[in-house]
Automatic annotation (TrEMBL):
This is Flagellar hook-basal body complex protein FliE. It is found in: Bacterial flagellum basal body. GO terms for cellular component: bacterial-type flagellum basal body. Its main location: other. InterPro entries: FliE.
Amino acid sequence: MSAINTVQQGLLSQLNQLSQIAEGEAIRPAMQLPGTQQQPSIGASFEQALRAVDAEQVKASASMAAVDSGESENLVGAMIDSQKASLSFTALLQVRNKLSGAFDDIMRMPL
């Protein structure tokens, strides 16, 4: 019986230690080294990519409007801007689809 009592006392002391940790300050993240930057989250990265694609779309729209109104004769540049915008939008959709598929795969994982 003394072995069982020893194990119980050890478990009780570990439980007390864990409860003291839980009641104390929250666990703080590790300090960052000087000169290093914190990595942006996936949401911030996706938002940045979305804004870049939107900027490409606005630029393409402006160059096409300039050609249509006769302000510019750079039709080739307008078409290139339009293709860049289309390609960046398609790439963004592919990334979104891959992320969505990966999230679905994670959610379907058995526990």
